[in-house]
Amino acid sequence: MNRRAVAATAFAFLVAMVGTTIPTALYPIYADDLGFSSLTVTVLFAVYACGVFVALLLFGTLSDQIGRRPVLVASLVFAIVSAAVFLVPASLATLIVGRVLSGVSAGLMTGAGTAAIVDLFPAERRARAGVLAVAVNSGGLGIGNLMGGVIADVSSSPLAVPFVAHLVLAVLALVAMQMFGQAPGPRHEWRPRIQRLRVPAEIRGAFTRGALAAGAGFASSGVLTAVTGIFLANDLDLHAHWLTGFVVFLVFASVASGQLLARRVSPRSALPAACAGMVVASGFLAWALAGPALAPLIVSAVCVGVSCGVSMNVALATTVELVPTAFRGGVSSAFFTVIYIMLAFPAIGVGVVADALGLRDAGLIFAGLVAVLAAAVGFADYSHSRVRR
Q1: pLDDT tens for each residue of 243-264
Q2: Computed from CA positions of residues 86, 92, 93, 98, in that sequence, does the dihedral angle turn out positive or negative?
Q3: Which pLDDT does position 174 carry in this prediction?
Q4: Residue 267: its pLDDT value, please?
Q5: Model confidence, pTM
Q6: Residue 111: what pLDDT?
Q7: Count of structural domains within the chain
Q8: Stretches in the chain below the pLDDT threshold 70
Q9: Side-chain half-sphere CA neighbours of 122 within 13 A
């Protein structure tokens, strides 16, 4: 195993994901400066999600054809350009362009980055590869939120310094990938087109249950992301930007704990238990919104993260880690396509419904919907396990 290649790839993955969530903690500042409503913030999340989907659909299998490194390098280039766009004086147009570019960066990185890390580990250590891939993915998402919030509170230029820091990190990651990253594979003819992200028939059942379970966790985090900033400021009168970043950071930091827990839980009970945890998390979120109260919001964030970590560990172990290298990028991209769709719709839906009913009612509605989805997926997996006994 090439440790330098593993380190360079993991660092590139982490840095790319950091850039996708830095703006989250800064939205209240943009809202004050530019007069944004909660619906405008929803539009910014929607265009980011569109960037992810386009990248996954157009380039989801590209790393299987031309090698992992060129795709990872392209992701970092998009991350650098995105950070540069955010350094231009802010307007709705520049924010939309910056979010689309960061979405494309994330779409390129999630599928190819996960496949690249799994490729670099020998077969007998694939479980560790899956843990590392999820850790750098979720860790980057969490660090981006926290970094944006902390810098916003201590810097005199809160809308510039976070993106300068990310620009520097992305350049360092690009250099590391060029020096130590996995060499590109043999080149085949490829033309940009919407591709079918194929999932081999033998893993489709496990893929569906795993992707839906992990997606339910990301849906929960999407609801939390959508409501936290405005809820803390308007309902709890807490205006520290670092606190917004910290709550969302807790979600993704807890994913690592969930992965460690998954290794101690029976595979047959792991997904149902994770789905039960998401139902509990939705209950605490509803309590926080109805209160309003901070403590149950914190508990909800931790429950969501742990449950999501368990479900992602199981899902990757039963899908991406089992398929041949030639299909790994496509299966990984298909997995993250499902997850990002399920992340986007609740976050977008909360913003749309909040315009009519208010943020707290919108959050309560979507917390309930996520709980129902998680319960259904957990029951389906539990029933499947009983049939196999």
Answers
A1: 888 888 888 888 878 877 777 7
A2: positive
A3: 94
A4: 65
A5: 0.79
A6: 80
A7: 1
A8: 1, 38, 183-198, 267, 320-322, 325-326, 384-389
A9: 4
Give the pLDDT confidence score for residue 87 in this predicted structure: 94
Residue 190 belongs to some domain of the structure: no
Residue position matching structure tokens 């994330």 = 106
Tell me the per-residue pLDDT of 101-129, one tens digit each, with 9 for 90 and over.
Answer: 999 999 899 888 888 888 888 877 777 78
Between CA 166 and CA 97 the distance in angstroms is: 17
Q: How far apart are CA 153 and CA 140, in angstroms?
A: 20
* Domain with 370 in it: 3-182+202-388
Q: Is residue 197 part of a domain?
A: no
- Rounded CA gap, 323 and 198, in Å? 11
Given a contact cutoff of 8 angstroms between Cβ atoms, the answer to whether 360 and 231 are in contact is yes
- What six digits make up the tokens of 43? 């539009």
Structure tokens at 205: 């059942």
Q: Is residue 187 part of a domain?
A: no
Integer angstrom CA distances of residue 227 from 188, 224, 303: 45, 5, 17
Contact 152, 162 (CB under 8 A): yes
Task: Classify residue 87: in a domain, yes or no.
Answer: yes
Distances (CA, A) of 201 to 25, 79, 207, 331: 41, 35, 10, 11
Give one DSSP letter per residue of 235-265, joined into a string.
TS----HHHHHHHHHHHHHHHHHHHHHHTTS
Find tokens 């694939």 and name the residue: 126
Element (H, E) at 134: helix 126-154
Other CB atoms within 10 A of residue 253 CB: 21
CATH number of 235's domain: 1.20.1250.20
Chain position carrying tokens 């960037």: 51
